[in-house]
Amino acid sequence: MTKIAVVEGDGIGHEVIPVARKILETLHPEFEYFPVEVGYGKWEQTGCPCADQQITELKTADAVLFGAVTTPPMKDYQSVVLRIRKALDLYANLRPVRGDGFDIMIVRENTEGLYSGIEEFSPDRATTLRVVTRAGSERIVRSAIRLVHQRKGHLTIGHKANVLKSDVLFRDICNSEAQKAGIECNDRFIDALALDLLQHPAAYDVVVTTNIFGDILSDVASFLVGGLGLAPSANIGDRYALFEPVHGSAPDIAGKNIANPIAAIRSAAMLLEYLGDSSGAARIESSINRALDQEGIRTRDLGGSAGTREFGDAVIREICGE
């Protein structure tokens, strides 16, 4: 039996993830869904936001549907997201950006870079070590190259090699692997790339970059599709996979039934794609579009008045009406 771990997390995660789960249950009632509790709320209860037990539970799942978690600005607080990515070795972060006339996949290295977790603090100085390794760079660009072959497209490498020596290594490894794979490839400085991607999105197909650059670039690119509330993501490793909306826990709107669940729903669609149900993923996407365009149902951030649950119900009506 296919097992799905469901992690609501914090804030609006408690609202958008149940909507996404309900849609998955509509399409696949035969799956086993089980909750795993991590995040700031878990830390408040137990003093640990993500213990070994929760990691073990996540490893029993065929895929993880993950909500947003709150990371307070405390130097002794362990980042839940970073711990899970490292424990499950989810080294490839995939963030699709699709719209009228463009279809971009941003492939972000997910386990090292400036999010290495190697940090030092003192009253007068804080240091974070940016780690770029040959092994990490090779496996992320090879993941990007596989996508290029599937999409029959081309690769863009985002970097800052004019300033950062670690990016010289990353750029050169990516170029070498692309050349060996025989694919069309170019590279751009990440700041210029961010601007040009917004101005000319149709010129891009698969973009590969380092951890923090990919984090920022994908958030910037979400402007093209209406904001973070619509942007999904996948975290993929060789054995495990986790799917989550790009947005944060948004505590200011939590509990008000006004959060946009589309990013979480699209993350559920990516989960189905990963499990081999491409038709189910397509049904979710087409149902979202019909709810928006034919029913005219929109949450407040999109200029409408529908609540989180109400939008999810509209998507389910569309799925069941097919």
TrEMBL record:
Q: Sorted alphabetically, which keywords does the UniProt record give?
A: Oxidoreductase
Q: What Gene Ontology molecular-function terms does this entry list?
A: isocitrate dehydrogenase (NAD+) activity; magnesium ion binding; NAD binding
Q: Which residues form the Isopropylmalate dehydrogenase-like domain?
A: 3-315
**InterPro entries per record:** IsoCit/isopropylmalate_DH_CS (IPR019818), IsoPropMal-DH-like_dom (IPR024084)
- Biological-process GO terms, alphabetical: isocitrate metabolic process; tricarboxylic acid cycle
Q: What PROSITE patterns would the database entry show? A: IDH_IMDH
Domain of life assignment = Archaea
Instruction: Spell out the Gene3D superfamilies in the cross-references.
Output: Isopropylmalate Dehydrogenase
Which SUPFAM superfamilies did the record assign? Answer: Isocitrate/Isopropylmalate dehydrogenase-like
Q: Which PANTHER family match?
A: DECARBOXYLATING DEHYDROGENASES-ISOCITRATE, ISOPROPYLMALATE, TARTRATE, ISOCITRATE DEHYDROGENASE [NAD] SUBUNIT ALPHA, MITOCHONDRIAL
Q: Family assignment?
A: Belongs to the isocitrate and isopropylmalate dehydrogenases family.
What protein name is recorded for this chain?
Isocitrate/isopropylmalate dehydrogenase
Species of origin: Methanoregula formicica (strain DSM 22288 / NBRC 105244 / SMSP)
